[in-house]
Automatic annotation (TrEMBL):
PANTHER family: ALTERED INHERITANCE OF MITOCHONDRIA PROTEIN 41, MITOCHONDRIAL (PTHR28055). It comes from the Bacteria. InterPro entries: Asn/Gln_tRNA_amidoTrase-B-like, GatB_Yqey_C_2, YqeY/Aim41, YqeY/Aim41_N. This is GatB/YqeY domain-containing protein. It holds the Pfam family YqeY.
Length: 149
């Protein structure tokens, strides 16, 4: 089932349940997917749908940081709820141990010898973890692993 189909079904469910918060987030996600389809001129692949979801999740996480710094607890709670709803549509997130194992395998595969090979490792690794792991976490693990070489 495509993401757009799932969003449409969940939209109907949220309308029937009169869940305004969920309804608003689903509408935003649906709009993001539809806009991307229009922009690209074709139905989205799974990777393209994942990119839209990742972008939406990232925006909300950045907003959460800003609201927290500003002391806006009312907006912090609302944004946390939005993040939870968007996360429901994301694939299962990888654990740090899984990322660590993938980083080590990628370092071996590309033949990285020092921190100068950071770009090579990240270039090979990011397509494998896209949407499944936070880029900042992956970045930190790669730096740590390359420094240890």
């Amino acid at each position: 089932m495509s993401l757009l189909t799932k969003l449409n079904e969940d939209l109907k469910t949220a309308m029937k349940a009169r869940d305004k918060d969920r309804l608003t987030v689903i509408r935003m996600l649906k709009t993001g997917v539809t806009n991307e389809q229009i922009k690209l001129g074709h139905d989205l692949s799974d990777q393209e749908e994942l990119a839209v979801l990742s972008r939406e999740l990232k925006q909300r996480k950045e907003s959460l940081e800003d609201f927290t710094k500003a002391g806006r607890t009312d907006l912090v709670d609302h944004t946390k709820q939005e993040i939870q709803i968007v996360s429901e549509y994301m694939p299962q997130q990888m654990t740090e141990a899984e990322v660590q194992a993938l980083v080590e395998a990628t370092i071996t595969k590309v033949g990285a010898k020092s921190t100068k090979d950071f770009g090579k490792v990240m270039g090979a690794l990011m397509p494998q973890v896209k949407g499944k792991a936070d880029g900042g976490v992956v970045n930190a693990i790669v730096k740590k692993a390359l420094t240890a070489l």
